[in-house]
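Sample intake sheet
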Amino acid sequence: MSQSDSSSTENIFHISHSSIKNLAGSGSIYDNEGIGGADKQNSPTSARQPKAPTVRTILFLAANPKDTAQLRLDEEVREIDASLQRARGRDQFVLQQRWAVRSRDVQRAMLDFRPQIVHFSGHGAEEGLVLEDKTGKAKFVDTEGLAGLFKSFSDCVECVVLNACYSEVQADAIARHIPYVIGMNKAIGDKAAIEFAVSLYDALGVGESVEFAYKFGCSNIRMAGIPEHLTPVLKKKSS
Protein backbone atom coordinates (compact mmCIF):
# COMPACT_ATOMS: atom_id res chain seq x y z
CA MET A 1 0.00 0.00 0.00
CA SER A 2 1.37 3.39 -0.91
CA GLN A 3 2.07 6.28 1.40
CA SER A 4 -0.76 8.73 1.97
CA ASP A 5 0.62 11.36 4.35
CA SER A 6 -0.68 14.80 3.43
CA SER A 7 2.34 16.56 4.93
CA SER A 8 5.13 17.87 2.73
CA THR A 9 8.71 16.65 2.64
CA GLU A 10 11.56 18.85 1.48
CA ASN A 11 14.82 17.43 0.25
CA ILE A 12 17.65 19.87 -0.57
CA PHE A 13 20.98 18.60 -1.82
CA HIS A 14 24.19 20.63 -2.01
CA ILE A 15 27.29 20.40 -4.19
CA SER A 16 29.77 23.03 -5.33
CA HIS A 17 31.76 23.70 -8.48
CA SER A 18 28.97 22.24 -10.64
CA SER A 19 28.18 23.01 -14.27
CA ILE A 20 24.87 21.98 -15.79
CA LYS A 21 22.77 22.82 -18.80
CA ASN A 22 19.49 24.58 -18.22
CA LEU A 23 16.27 22.55 -18.38
CA ALA A 24 15.58 23.44 -21.98
CA GLY A 25 19.12 22.50 -22.97
CA SER A 26 19.87 25.94 -24.38
CA GLY A 27 23.11 26.64 -22.56
CA SER A 28 25.13 26.22 -19.39
CA ILE A 29 24.78 27.67 -15.93
CA TYR A 30 27.82 27.88 -13.69
CA ASP A 31 28.49 28.62 -10.07
CA ASN A 32 30.24 31.91 -9.40
CA GLU A 33 33.52 30.42 -8.17
CA GLY A 34 36.56 30.18 -10.36
CA ILE A 35 35.58 33.08 -12.59
CA GLY A 36 39.03 34.57 -12.31
CA GLY A 37 41.17 36.97 -10.39
CA ALA A 38 40.72 40.62 -9.63
CA ASP A 39 41.79 41.59 -13.14
CA LYS A 40 38.85 39.73 -14.66
CA GLN A 41 36.47 41.11 -12.07
CA ASN A 42 37.54 44.65 -12.94
CA SER A 43 37.52 44.10 -16.70
CA PRO A 44 34.78 45.41 -18.99
CA THR A 45 33.57 41.84 -19.52
CA SER A 46 32.88 41.27 -15.82
CA ALA A 47 29.29 42.42 -16.26
CA ARG A 48 28.75 39.43 -18.53
CA GLN A 49 29.82 36.86 -15.93
CA PRO A 50 27.38 33.92 -15.66
CA LYS A 51 24.88 34.14 -12.83
CA ALA A 52 24.77 31.62 -10.02
CA PRO A 53 22.65 28.54 -10.81
CA THR A 54 18.93 28.81 -10.27
CA VAL A 55 17.45 26.17 -7.97
CA ARG A 56 14.51 24.40 -9.61
CA THR A 57 11.61 23.08 -7.60
CA ILE A 58 10.10 19.71 -8.50
CA LEU A 59 6.58 19.31 -7.12
CA PHE A 60 5.60 15.66 -6.75
CA LEU A 61 1.82 15.21 -6.50
CA ALA A 62 0.43 11.78 -5.63
CA ALA A 63 -3.12 10.45 -5.42
CA ASN A 64 -4.19 6.85 -4.84
CA PRO A 65 -7.80 6.99 -3.62
CA LYS A 66 -8.92 4.21 -1.30
CA ASP A 67 -11.44 2.90 -3.84
CA THR A 68 -8.77 2.43 -6.56
CA ALA A 69 -6.06 -0.18 -7.10
CA GLN A 70 -3.00 0.43 -4.97
CA LEU A 71 0.03 1.78 -6.81
CA ARG A 72 3.70 1.87 -5.79
CA LEU A 73 3.84 5.65 -5.57
CA ASP A 74 6.11 5.63 -2.52
CA GLU A 75 8.65 3.59 -4.45
CA GLU A 76 8.44 6.01 -7.38
CA VAL A 77 9.20 9.08 -5.29
CA ARG A 78 11.98 7.24 -3.44
CA GLU A 79 13.63 6.41 -6.76
CA ILE A 80 13.24 9.99 -7.99
CA ASP A 81 14.82 11.19 -4.76
CA ALA A 82 17.72 8.76 -5.27
CA SER A 83 18.20 9.97 -8.85
CA LEU A 84 18.53 13.56 -7.68
CA GLN A 85 20.89 12.66 -4.84
CA ARG A 86 23.35 10.92 -7.15
CA ALA A 87 23.27 13.62 -9.86
CA ARG A 88 26.13 16.07 -10.23
CA GLY A 89 23.54 18.83 -10.49
CA ARG A 90 21.74 17.79 -7.33
CA ASP A 91 22.21 21.19 -5.70
CA GLN A 92 20.04 22.63 -8.45
CA PHE A 93 16.84 20.81 -7.45
CA VAL A 94 14.48 20.87 -4.48
CA LEU A 95 11.93 18.05 -4.26
CA GLN A 96 8.61 18.94 -2.65
CA GLN A 97 5.85 16.37 -2.08
CA ARG A 98 2.10 16.41 -1.59
CA TRP A 99 0.20 13.16 -1.02
CA ALA A 100 -3.46 12.13 -1.25
CA VAL A 101 -4.10 15.31 -3.18
CA ARG A 102 -7.47 16.87 -3.80
CA SER A 103 -8.03 19.66 -6.32
CA ARG A 104 -7.64 22.24 -3.59
CA ASP A 105 -4.34 20.69 -2.49
CA VAL A 106 -2.97 20.95 -6.03
CA GLN A 107 -3.93 24.62 -6.26
CA ARG A 108 -2.38 25.45 -2.89
CA ALA A 109 0.82 23.54 -3.63
CA MET A 110 1.23 25.46 -6.88
CA LEU A 111 0.81 28.74 -4.99
CA ASP A 112 3.16 27.70 -2.19
CA PHE A 113 6.04 26.44 -4.32
CA ARG A 114 5.64 27.94 -7.82
CA PRO A 115 7.50 24.91 -9.21
CA GLN A 116 9.46 24.57 -12.43
CA ILE A 117 8.62 20.87 -12.79
CA VAL A 118 5.31 19.30 -11.77
CA HIS A 119 5.13 15.50 -11.55
CA PHE A 120 1.77 13.82 -11.00
CA SER A 121 1.71 10.14 -10.14
CA GLY A 122 -1.48 8.15 -9.77
CA HIS A 123 -4.46 6.91 -11.72
CA GLY A 124 -5.86 8.32 -14.92
CA ALA A 125 -8.60 7.56 -17.42
CA GLU A 126 -10.02 9.07 -20.57
CA GLU A 127 -12.31 11.12 -18.32
CA GLY A 128 -9.32 12.75 -16.65
CA LEU A 129 -6.74 12.40 -13.90
CA VAL A 130 -7.95 10.85 -10.67
CA LEU A 131 -7.55 12.90 -7.49
CA GLU A 132 -9.25 12.38 -4.14
CA ASP A 133 -12.41 13.89 -2.74
CA LYS A 134 -12.83 14.93 0.89
CA THR A 135 -13.63 11.33 1.88
CA GLY A 136 -10.54 9.89 0.15
CA LYS A 137 -12.45 8.41 -2.75
CA ALA A 138 -11.72 8.88 -6.46
CA LYS A 139 -12.72 12.11 -8.17
CA PHE A 140 -11.89 13.08 -11.74
CA VAL A 141 -10.38 16.51 -12.27
CA ASP A 142 -11.75 18.53 -15.17
CA THR A 143 -9.23 18.62 -18.02
CA GLU A 144 -9.88 22.21 -19.06
CA GLY A 145 -9.86 23.30 -15.44
CA LEU A 146 -6.47 21.67 -15.00
CA ALA A 147 -5.14 23.32 -18.14
CA GLY A 148 -6.41 26.66 -16.88
CA LEU A 149 -4.53 26.17 -13.61
CA PHE A 150 -1.27 25.63 -15.45
CA LYS A 151 -1.96 28.64 -17.65
CA SER A 152 -1.92 30.71 -14.47
CA PHE A 153 1.58 29.40 -13.70
CA SER A 154 3.00 29.48 -17.22
CA ASP A 155 5.55 32.06 -16.08
CA CYS A 156 7.30 29.50 -13.86
CA VAL A 157 6.39 25.94 -14.90
CA GLU A 158 8.72 24.52 -17.55
CA CYS A 159 7.68 20.87 -17.61
CA VAL A 160 4.74 18.75 -16.46
CA VAL A 161 4.94 14.96 -16.12
CA LEU A 162 1.64 13.07 -15.93
CA ASN A 163 2.77 9.59 -14.91
CA ALA A 164 -0.74 8.16 -15.07
CA CYS A 165 -2.72 5.99 -17.48
CA TYR A 166 -4.49 7.62 -20.44
CA SER A 167 -3.14 11.09 -19.60
CA GLU A 168 -2.36 12.13 -23.19
CA VAL A 169 -5.60 14.11 -23.41
CA GLN A 170 -4.65 16.14 -20.36
CA ALA A 171 -1.11 16.55 -21.69
CA ASP A 172 -2.45 18.00 -24.93
CA ALA A 173 -4.57 20.52 -23.02
CA ILE A 174 -1.76 21.59 -20.69
CA ALA A 175 0.75 21.87 -23.56
CA ARG A 176 -1.20 24.86 -24.87
CA HIS A 177 0.42 26.80 -22.02
CA ILE A 178 3.52 24.89 -20.84
CA PRO A 179 6.68 24.25 -22.94
CA TYR A 180 6.96 20.50 -22.25
CA VAL A 181 4.32 18.04 -21.07
CA ILE A 182 4.68 14.26 -20.84
CA GLY A 183 1.60 12.05 -20.75
CA MET A 184 0.69 8.41 -21.40
CA ASN A 185 -1.24 7.34 -24.50
CA LYS A 186 -2.67 4.23 -22.83
CA ALA A 187 -2.46 2.29 -19.58
CA ILE A 188 1.03 2.01 -18.10
CA GLY A 189 2.14 -0.51 -15.50
CA ASP A 190 3.78 0.35 -12.19
CA LYS A 191 7.17 -1.01 -13.22
CA ALA A 192 7.27 0.87 -16.52
CA ALA A 193 6.14 4.09 -14.84
CA ILE A 194 8.91 3.84 -12.27
CA GLU A 195 11.59 2.93 -14.82
CA PHE A 196 10.59 5.94 -16.92
CA ALA A 197 10.61 8.34 -13.97
CA VAL A 198 14.01 7.15 -12.70
CA SER A 199 15.74 7.68 -16.05
CA LEU A 200 13.94 10.97 -16.70
CA TYR A 201 15.35 12.49 -13.50
CA ASP A 202 18.73 10.79 -13.94
CA ALA A 203 19.06 12.79 -17.16
CA LEU A 204 17.59 16.05 -15.88
CA GLY A 205 19.82 15.80 -12.82
CA VAL A 206 22.96 15.97 -14.94
CA GLY A 207 21.70 18.89 -16.98
CA GLU A 208 20.19 17.22 -20.04
CA SER A 209 17.22 18.77 -21.81
CA VAL A 210 13.64 17.60 -21.33
CA GLU A 211 13.60 16.12 -24.83
CA PHE A 212 16.75 14.10 -24.16
CA ALA A 213 15.46 13.01 -20.73
CA TYR A 214 12.16 11.87 -22.26
CA LYS A 215 13.92 9.73 -24.87
CA PHE A 216 16.27 8.40 -22.21
CA GLY A 217 13.31 7.36 -20.08
CA CYS A 218 11.62 5.56 -22.97
CA SER A 219 14.86 3.74 -23.78
CA ASN A 220 15.16 2.60 -20.17
CA ILE A 221 11.69 1.04 -20.27
CA ARG A 222 12.73 -0.93 -23.35
CA MET A 223 16.10 -1.96 -21.88
CA ALA A 224 14.27 -3.26 -18.81
CA GLY A 225 12.41 -5.66 -21.10
CA ILE A 226 9.04 -3.95 -20.66
CA PRO A 227 7.03 -3.59 -23.89
CA GLU A 228 5.66 -0.15 -22.96
CA HIS A 229 8.38 2.17 -24.26
CA LEU A 230 5.97 3.78 -26.73
CA THR A 231 3.43 4.64 -24.03
CA PRO A 232 4.98 7.93 -22.79
CA VAL A 233 4.41 10.82 -25.22
CA LEU A 234 6.04 14.24 -25.21
CA LYS A 235 3.96 17.27 -26.07
CA LYS A 236 5.55 20.63 -26.84
CA LYS A 237 3.92 24.02 -26.75
CA SER A 238 3.31 25.46 -30.20
CA SER A 239 5.33 28.57 -30.92
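Comment: The CA atoms of residues 2 and 74 lie 5 Å apart. The chain has one domain: 54-236.
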